[in-house]
Amino acid sequence: MAGTKEIKTHIESVQETRKITNAMYLIASTKLRRARAELDNTRPYFEALQGEIKRIFRTVNNVDSHYFYPAAGAPPLEGPCGCLVITADKGLAGSYNQNAIREALKLLEQHPDLKLFVVGEYGRRYFAQRNIPMEHSFLYTAQNPTMSRAREISALLLNRFDRGELKKIYIVYTDMESAMSFQARTTRLLPFHRTYFSDTGEQPVTEPFEFLPDPRTVLNSMMPSYVSGFIYSALIDSFCCEQNARMTAMDSANQNAEKLLGELSRRYNQVRQSAITQEITEVSAGARAQRQRKDR
């Protein structure tokens, strides 16, 4: 059985660990609030951009663009696919990273020739250790995503897509469904379905619109900005989910530390009380022996 010194050392170690987990919880909560604020500030622009794309489809029904699936009856798209996988830079975030990687592995089973574009040190390390080839790894950190980084990612992916090197592009990210739940998702980034921008609730536009030089050129000039916004939203959403998962993990660690400290304190008191009782017993036995000796 451990002595009081060993138990006291264990208690001090748990207390130091609790300080670290509590600090990580506070840092994650601060980052989460900041990321949500940034997402709320940029969302109106991209919602307006999506509305303008819908306006084009309501005005011109037969507009054609390689950013969209061919019309019904056209041959299916065949060719290599790419996938942007968004993970964190480190662990200690529960099942956040593993869920995203699991989605990427499912996509790899469906498309053996899938080319991976990875964001986050955790994902890079996972695929490298298992000798899974990566087409491109973005070396900057996944922490604090910015619009400039989203534009760099979208420029690389759009360049491959425009040259025909990638026929389809998927994105694996983590979507925050609510303040307490999140889920890893696989979404096709390109090409879009036309129904994604259809709005059945609105009547067709009757007022004439003039597109210069033509609707197809206008649409193609808008889509890169929309793709950048989609990627930025996925980066921010994943970052929020990462911080939320880390807060949950650190809160659970704090609760476990409190429980462990309670058990160690009780054990420490028991051992200390046992030692005191033993000392009293030894003193009493010695005094009794001395009295017996005097009596003889």
Q: Can you tell me the CATH class of the largest domain?
A: Alpha Beta
Distance between the termini: 40 Å
| SSE order | HEHEHEHEEH
Helix/strand/pairing class, anyone?
Answer: alpha/beta
CATH architecture of the largest domain: 3-Layer(aba) Sandwich
The total strand number stands at 5
| Strand neighbour order, sheet with most strands | 3-2-1-4-5
**Percent in helix:** 55-70%
Question: What Rg is obtained from the alpha carbons, in whole angstroms?
Answer: 30 Å
The CATH topology of the largest domain: Pyruvate Kinase, Chain: A, domain 1
Fourth-level CATH superfamily of the largest domain:
ATP synthase, F1 complex, gamma subunit
Q: Mean of the pLDDT scores?
A: 79
Taken together, the total number of domains comes to 2
Strand content: 5-15%
